[in-house]
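Hi C.,

You asked whether I'd gotten around to modeling the 210-residue construct. I have! Everything is below, sequence then structure, no commentary in between.
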Amino acid sequence: LMKLLAGVLAPMSGERKPARDLAIGYFAQSQVEELPAEATPLALTRENVPGWSDQMARDYLGGFGYGGELATTPVGPRSGGEKARLALALLLAHKPNLLLLDEPTNHLDMAARAALVEALQDFPGAVVLVSHDRALLESCCERYLRVYAGGVSDFDEDLDSYARLLRGEGSPGSSSAPSTTPVASSTAPAIDHKERRALSNRLKRLEEQV
């Protein structure tokens, strides 16, 4: 699904129609492995954003922990978390208005995860996120989609309800199942999902504080 949204794969049927001003930033699971080992963060940034000077690129990289000599050190010896941070930096340098993130926290330590959460919460565009990181999902997502049986539907409950569904305590179509609404036939405006998810997350944080 993410590759279809990113335009990497062509749909088997139907048509993908991107908006005129759409600028996609796609972070694939293989993004870290695809960084050339001999390249430096500075060279990669200049290559990705040709209009930037060395100083502009250095200033930008400094915000992602690649200041000073680290900007001109080959990527190869860096840890998985450091490479993931660089890959995200290169992605965001293009100023996309839609982020497609496939397991972005796989190689990140706790500090880097916290920084990613903050960045996503402040991101002015839209984000489609696939992750097994429950804390990331609960902190950043305003709407959940369930990909199941060849279709995509809104999942209107929280992740606890989804865990119960996976354990077999509820099943699609049963009276005890969480509500799922096919995306294509949903008539509720997106703001309803955003408000509901934001209120749910706020309530959880308050309950944890109590």
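If it helps when you're writing up: The CA atoms of residues 170 and 177 lie 4 Å apart.

Thanks,
B.
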